[in-house]
Amino acid sequence: MKYVGVLPEIYGEASFQTANYARFGVEFARGEGAYLYDRDGNAYLDLLCGLGVTSIGHCHARVVDAVRAQTGELMHASNLFWTRPAEDLARELVARSFATKAFFCNSGAEANEAAIKLARAHATAAGRPGRDIVVLEQAFHGRTFGALSATPQEDKQAPFKPLVHGFKTAPRDDAAALAGMIDEQTCAVLLEPVQGESGPYAISNDLLIAAREACDAVGALLIFDEVQCGMGRTGSLFAYEQTAVVPDVVTLAKALGGGLPIGAMLAAEHCADSLRPGYHGSTFGGNPVACAAAGAALEVITDPAVAENGRQIAELLRDLLKSLGRVSGRGLMIGLTPGDQIDAPTVVNELLFEHRVVINATGPHSLRLLPPLTLTEEQARFGAAAITSAVENA
Ligand SMILES: Cc1ncc(COP(=O)(O)O)c(C=O)c1O
User: Fold this and answer.
1) Is the pTM above the cut of 0.90?
2) Where in the chain is the domain with CATH 3.40.640.10?
3) DSSP strand pairing (132-136 vs 186-191)
4) Phi, psi of 172, deg, nearest 5
5) pLDDT tens digits, 180-230
């Protein structure tokens, strides 16, 4: 049976929530490891991880324990004061990266807002004229106004214009063209080293090197949005570790919290303190429970056995899928384009309703998998067989 057009609805128009999400007709009630369970108790193999969030599986015991312990101690104090989980998490993230300071917020878009503000504040502090931010075509940086202005996709921007001024779009595969756009007017280049929503698509080292050199020449910041490609997803804790460059700023969210909402901006010493007291803030930023969850998730993600499993499963899945079409992305950020004759939403629906396997479509003909680092070989083979069947049926 094919599901094309109108999807089976659970609440549909009777829902009390705004209509901005096109939801599938499934209600999930529970999650454990690589599986989601619907309200009737049916298990679904989750190869999407809630859009890249539950990278160590659903309700990982270490995260659940940390959250339970912290909710019994302190849930909120505000940034008028110090709290231990945020400081511990900042120390761990800094120790594992190029950065010297971390700023915490609640989402990927907010992490990018912080980075955009840092870049402009940094230019202001240095007395530089540059306020422009160069982004790449097909980028996705989030839905708030700054992040949306950095997301050059007409369908997402059009209803909300006017946007924030000062964003310029460069081609994502032309290093010379990008370098040519970076000048005295530029305060930052913001890019995803592996684009997520319009791919996945790995940006070439040539382009990253050109961006790094051009930023250095004018004193602009190089900002990597690792909201989706960070936190172990591509085979190293940070995606930049597998590229030829080191950025000045990295933004994180999604898998950072092990399932709880948290975002972070990590910044290098020479720019981190451009955000002076009072320049930026977030009531819930650095929330003790979210930070305790993130601390536990970080321990699991950086466990060498988990990281190695993730790398091996990535290789296996890529190998199992390659006969179906073009496989893109990096590590466990997997794009599959079976060809223009294959309708990706049809494949996704068939997988969900016939095979109980969760992936999504990033375009009319492109599929995306963001499986957990903890996926077993058996689960990977089951998922790949279901995808093969759904693609061949489509
Ligand atoms: C690369 C990237 N940046 C930013 C965002 C926005 O994150 P959030 O939805 O948490 O605001 C996303 C979300 O998909 C993303 O993939």
Assistant:
1) yes
2) 61-301
3) parallel
4) -90, -5
5) 999 999 999 999 999 999 889 999 999 999 999 999 999 999 999 999 999
1 pLDDT more than 90:
no
Atom of ligand 1 nearest to the CA of 195: 1
CA dist., res. 366 & res. 386, Å (int): 16
Looking at this protein, which amino acid is placed at residue 267?
A
Residue range 352-363, pLDDT digits in tens: 999 999 999 999
Which atom of ligand 1 is least distant from the CA of 197?
16
Which architecture characterizes domain 61-301 according to CATH? 3-Layer(aba) Sandwich (3.40)
Query: Domain 12-60+303-393 belongs to what topology?
Result: Aspartate Aminotransferase, domain 1 (3.90.1150)
With a 6 A CB cut-off, is 261 part of the ligand 1 pocket? no
Range(s) for CATH 3.90.1150.10 in the chain? 12-60+303-393
Query: Ligand 1 centre and the CA of 154: distance in Å?
Result: 17
| Residue of 21, 104, 156, 227 with the most ligand 1 atoms within 8 Å of its CB, for mutation | 227
Can you list the pairs that 269-274 forms with residues at least 24 positions away whose Cβ atoms lie under 8 Å? 269/100, 269/101, 271/118, 271/122, 271/221, 272/99, 272/100, 272/101, 272/118, 273/101, 274/118, 274/121, 274/122, 274/124, 274/125
How large is the average pLDDT for residues 37-60? 97
Best residue among 49, 110, 138, 140 to mutate for probing ligand 1's pocket (most ligand atoms within 8 Å of CB) is 140
φ, ψ of residue 215 to 5 degrees: the values are: -65, -45
Under DSSP, the state recorded for 250 is E
The residue among 217, 220, 162, 210 whose CA lies nearest residue 187 is: 220
More confidently predicted of 176 and 2: 176
Distance 298 CA to ligand 1 centre (A): 19
